[in-house]
Design a protein that fits this description.
2 copies of one chain form a homodimer. The first copy, chain A, has 13 helices and 21 strands. The first copy, chain A, is of the alpha+beta class. Chain A folds into 2 domains: 248 residues, FAD/NAD(P)-binding domain (3-Layer(bba) Sandwich), CATH 3.50.50.60; 180 residues, 2-Layer Sandwich (D-Amino Acid Oxidase, Chain A, domain 2). In chain A, the strands form 4 sheets. In chain A, strands 4, 5, 6, 12, 13, 14, 15, 16 and 17 form a 9-stranded mixed beta sheet that branches. In chain A, strands 1, 2, 8, 9, 10, 11, 18 and 19 form an 8-stranded mixed beta sheet that branches. Chain A is elongated. Chains A and B meet through helix 8, strand 16 and helix 12 of A and helix 8, strand 16 and helix 12 of B.
Chain lengths: 455, 455
């Protein structure tokens, strides 16, 4: 047969042996110490105690990027049974950590309350949502308008005759859909829990301030040809190139959220995720009686507090913050605000005009207690959306991707970490907290088997 | 009720009436005069003869960007019944244009030939592919190794003992899967056909050299508030901002392929598509007897030519080019070459090293006739991939998106143009050439109803 590679080989070089010896090598490199990164690190190390697992993070501490910017609410009330399973088991694990292990996550079962108009409540998607929750045994309860009015002081439930409300497309409040097993927690505490547990059993000190610039995709096997890998070679990611040098590993975990495209696209893996800027604004109840009364609404939970509450319009929601006696105001806007291919610094800067123009008018229409309220603090971060709003966990060419949590990464972190670990160990199923099992490839791109999330 | 908008309104201005009067207005603006843009323009105008439809294009002529860079092969041999329908009806329309209307598209039924190894041929995905083709009545035929060897001079069907071939992961050739109703055409001729037909019936002269910089997303209704649209407002795209000024329209069609993300992401619509660079290299048969013999292989088609041929390894393929007595060599590489968020100039530049390293070794192993062959010409362009390799056609917020054809836009252009037109006219179904119908929302993101494409 004709020799067609000879001239390629002749152009190669053989410095590889030297290069390898100058680089560190681990079994696993985990990129990103947000909630998904630390949860994955913990389960990987726990179930592969001898492996050398290096956690690297661009910022100077764990959980200080988008995880810290989260509203950090947790709910098991999803429409897809996959999301239900991921969140329900994760939340139960968080309860276990706090109640049984005594590690305070500031997890508080405030509950989740969706306020819905008549038409919204009767929409097919809400029916499917409620049916699937019933089937999965997810706690939920419906309040009618009169009950809500009796429980929540000064709640505006209809806007008849209010021309502004009509211009603002505000739905009336006809029902409240409440989930008692939902709540809020402190995202930094959660990250610290996993991080501490990981470092207790890890053989390698995590490294901060290390920016991963690209994945080291190499021919497998390497032929030391110039410019390889070529189209006809098998390929594998054998490490990462960072601003502090190249580090090698058998498997690279990407828990890089809204920065993932910068690493995967160059090697030809489409993450199918995009970022979106999300902002939170803090309102203190302080000496405002109406806001105090709203914060201390009774009847929904044992805390005697208003639940995490989603308004019927514009995606506006608020989260009670009981330690600081206030509210975090957020908004899950849709068309009209940009998707981001890769999150940039601008996406970390909150815009006061966003509160003033998009949130405040809606918030104060439903809850006049907020009239005149001005934020005392604010921050911004990015959601990492997948097309079906279900996360991705898959292992391909040596890269274990854990992303696409679509704004609910904290509440899915435990389950996603366990699934990532099962994939790493080649297990067909992952066992989630409480013993429920899920096929390890459920959240993959290639063998995806999920219902599209609608809530 | 409390007035919460008053202070917003007070900050507004009322220059809008003036601005509108200085801008042109059309019924439809079509952005992009590639094959999908011109086909859509034609069907829109044909079925809405009174509408003012403006076609704008960044380059200086129709079909001169990625369409012109295409291998311009057409096949109805897909695994998904959706792609089968889109291509089969489009190809039949091209035949009609050439045979009945007498407009020469240089459409030649060379056929398509997949060379496959034993394991590849017996793979579940190939079985599904063949079953679905049978069900849809797509012409296909299987050749065995001996038949192929008898028909194609010097074809290497196995590499036993060839160490290079083993290093190169080359599959043997055990079968050929052939489709007689496939072929090649001239993409520029096809674009010219639709463009000429469109301009015959259009009321507006198409504009070239116009770069659309962003979509004009506005509040609906506009309240003239500063910074609107806000989260609580309905929104609609009412035109485009170009380097030659703002142009308004009821509907904006985006037939912008690998540049779509630059327009949709800023308004918060995730196109779910990404680009990938593809390159073609031209080899002339000239006075090389072996290449002449390969080009003139008999038995596959009435032309007495080798079909469009896909090799079993590395995604390498070639297309016979009968007018210039040569071959175009291409490669559908996978992991290892970058996905592109937005196509840039670099993606239009072919790399000779890509031919030398990734294509030539594979090509010349199977077809030694190519040994020593060097390209006389080359070019590059971008495929616009969707996640399931099925195109997108949907109308959302005033934007009619026609993209994601995943490398087979030319062969789907007629069907996609008809579906786009049906959506524009609010028809529940689109009638494709030959009378077959397809629900207009089949290719949408929200109501997508397709089988994932695997071929």
């Amino acid at each position: 047969m004709a020799n067609v590679l000879g001239w390629l080989v002749s152009r190669g070089n053989n410095t590889e042996a030297f290069v390898v010896s100058s680089e560190e090598t681990f079994d696993v490199i985990i990129v990103g110490a947000g909630c998904l990164g630390v949860a994955t690190a913990y389960y990987l190390q726990k179930n592969s105690p001898d492996k050398k697992i290096l956690l690297v993070e661009r910022t100077l501490a764990a959980g200080q990027a988008n995880t810290a910017m989260s509203a950090a609410a947790v709910r098991n009330m999803f429409a897809s049974s996959t999301n239900q399973l991921l969140t329900d088991t994760s939340i139960k694990y968080f309860e276990y950590v706090q109640e049984e292990l005594g590690y305070d996550l500031f997890f508080e079962k405030t509950g989740y309350l969706w306020l819905l108009g008549e038409e919204q409540f009767n929409h097919e998607s809400v029916k499917v949502w409620m049916e699937r929750m019933k089937k999965s045994g997810i706690s939920h309860k419906v309040y009618n308008k009169e009950e809500l009015k009796a429980m929540i002081p000064n709640l505006n439930v209809d806007f008849a005759g209010d021309e502004e409300a009509e211009l603002m497309n505000l739905h009336e409040v006809s029902y409240g859909l409440f989930g008692a097993d939902c709540g809020v927690l402190d995202p930094t505490r959660l990250v610290e829990y996993y991080f501490e547990e990981f470092t207790k059993i890890s053989h390698v000190k995590p490294r901060f301030g290390v920016n991963v610039e690209k994945l080291l995709l190499e021919a497998d096997p390497k032929l030391d040809l110039p410019g390889e890998p070529y189209a006809w070679q098998k390929k594998k990611v054998n490490g990462v190139v960072t601003d502090k040098g190249t580090i090698r590993a058998d498997v690279v975990v990407l828990a890089t959220g809204t920065w993932t495209n910068a690493l995967l696209d160059p090697i030809g893996i489409d993450s199918l995720t995009k970022g979106k800027k999300r902002q939170l604004f803090v309102i203190h109840a302080e000496d405002k009686e109406d806001l105090q009364a709203l914060l201390d609404v009774k009847g929904f939970n044992e805390l005697g507090s208003i639940p995490f509450t989603i308004l019927p319009s514009a995606g506006v929601y608020f989260r009670p913050q009981l330690q600081e006696r206030g509210f975090w105001i957020g908004c899950g806007d849709k068309v009209g605000r940009a998707y981001k291919y890769i999150q940039n610094d601008e996406d970390m800067v909150p815009e006061s005009s966003y509160y003033e123009n998009s949130m405040y008018p809606v918030l104060s229409k439903y809850f006049p207690a907020f009239l005149g309220a001005r934020p005392v603090n604010s921050w911004a971060g990015g959601y990492n959306y997948s097309p079906d709003r279900i996360p991705f966990v898959y292992l391909e060419c040596g890269v274990l991707v854990v992303n696409g949590a679509s704004g609910s990464g904290i509440m899915k972190a435990d389950a996603m970490g366990r699934i990532a670990d099962a994939l790493y160990r080649g297990e067909a199923e992952a066992e989630l907290y409480g013993g429920k099992k899920i096929p390890s490839n459920t959240l993959s791109i290639k063998d995806r088997d999920v219902e599209v999330e609608s809530v």
